[in-house]
Design goal:
alpha/beta; binds iron/sulfur cluster
């Protein structure tokens, strides 16, 4: 895999675990709000970390960390993701995958191989082309994304769905439509948008929802999800 960077210690990226985060380079999507242009735009890629450099780091942290998050970019683009996960698990770490859900076959294979303890999947908008294209910057195969949703809903691995909420992009009725498409999900995390360092600079003019509007939405949706989390800048509730 192409690893563009490591966050050596995190208490918030892997539920109930102290973890490090490996950031893979490369993503088909071009989400306007993306904060990781250096992992998405090939012209901005830095030097990759060598595989052995990453595993030397992980071996040294075996006693200090519980888990490893593989994030991106989009990790499922990398054909050796499974090999990496096996090596990481052989070191005794729990594993979490962050994904946009575009490769359901990869997701299913990793789950069937018992290589994942937790999956966080982005749900960027209503699962309709006109909406999803407007935020992802491409025309992703929505059947694939729906298949990944169903895989998590019906599977045995822990998961959360995540949606970044932007005033100019998501209306209340859009969020209700997304909620309907996630019916039966244990956990949905709604993240407040941060208007800074966006892949599309124009999106820095966009705004997060107000705390009042988010609170009202939460009240409306609370009964539909056992765990409905709101993540503001740097903390969650
Ligand atoms: S936010 Fe969008 S563009 Fe950025 S890494 Fe995730 S899927 Fe790719």
């Amino acid at each position: 895999m192409r690893i563009g960077g490591i966050q050596k210690y995190s208490t918030i990226d892997f539920p109930k675990k102290l973890a490090c985060v490996l950031f893979t380079q490369g993503c088909h999507f071009r989400c306007g709000f993306c904060h990781n242009a250096e992992l998405v735009e090939p012209k901005q890629f830095g030097n990759c970390l060598a595989e052995e450099e990453v595993f030397t780091f992980l071996e040294k942290r075996r006693k200090a960390l519980d888990g490893v998050v593989i994030s991106g970019g989009e990790p499922t683009l990398h054909p050796d993701l499974e090999t990496w996960l096996r090596r990481i698990r052989d070191l005794g770490f729990a594993t979490k995958l962050d994904t946009n859900g575009i490769h359901p076959n990869v997701l299913q294979s990793l789950i069937q191989g018992e290589l994942l303890d937790f999956v966080a999947m982005d749900i960027k908008h209503c699962l309709q082309a006109s909406y999803y294209d407007s935020i992802s910057g491409i025309s992703p195969n929505l059947e694939s994304i729906q298949e990944s949703v169903q895989t998590l809903l019906s599977g045995s691995v822990d998961y959360e769905f995540r949606t970044t909420l932007i005033s100019e992009i998501h209306r209340r009725e859009d969020m209700l439509a997304i909620a309907a498409s996630l019916r039966g999900a244990r956990q949905w995390t709604i993240q407040s948008f941060r208007p800074q360092k966006t892949l599309n600079p124009q999106w820095q003019n966009f705004r997060p929802w107000s705390a009042e509007a988010i609170g009202s939405l939460r009240t409306e949706l609370a009964e539909k999800f056992p765990e409905l989390r709101i993540r503001y800048l740097g903390f969650s509730s």
